[in-house]
Amino acid sequence: MEKIEKKIITNFENVKYDIYAKFWDLWELDGSFERHIEKRITLGHIDDRDDYIVKTLDCLANSDNFIFAEHKNSWDNICYNKSKSWAVIFNENGKIMTSYKIEIGSK
Fold it and tell me: Of 17, 56, 68, 75, which alpha carbon lies 20 to 30 A from 88's?
């Protein structure tokens, strides 16, 4: 887990001087960042791109739990959960796979 945590920190260090312009570079797949934003706006979880970035960063900075899990033996992920019902999931390279509002009863 420490190795993945270090990769996450390194990835954030690489964009910290222009986090709003380069936040998409923290994402696992090219183009998936914009799709995630559109989906979260449609669901009413965020107001805009900046709100999504702030909620993701806030979740990471103020996490209640850090969960390490293996998914289908194909990649490891770390899920950072926060009492404000937001989660961020990373792959084994420290890239964000998704960031979303946790809603009881939702899939």
Answer: 17
For the record, the structure tokens of 10 come out as 């390194």
Geometric angle at alpha carbon 53, from 84 and 8, rounded to 5°: 90
Mean pLDDT, to the nearest integer, of 86-107?
A: 82
Q: What are the CA-CA distances from residue 54 to residues 23, 59, 86 (Å)?
A: 11, 8, 11
- 3-state SS, residue 66: strand
- List Cβ neighbours of 1 (8 Å cut-off, separation of 6 or more): 66, 68, 78
Q: Residue 23: how many CB atoms within 10 A of its CB?
A: 20
Take residue 58 and report the two structure tokens written for it: 């806030």
Residue pair 100/45 in contact (Cβ under 8 Å)? The answer is yes
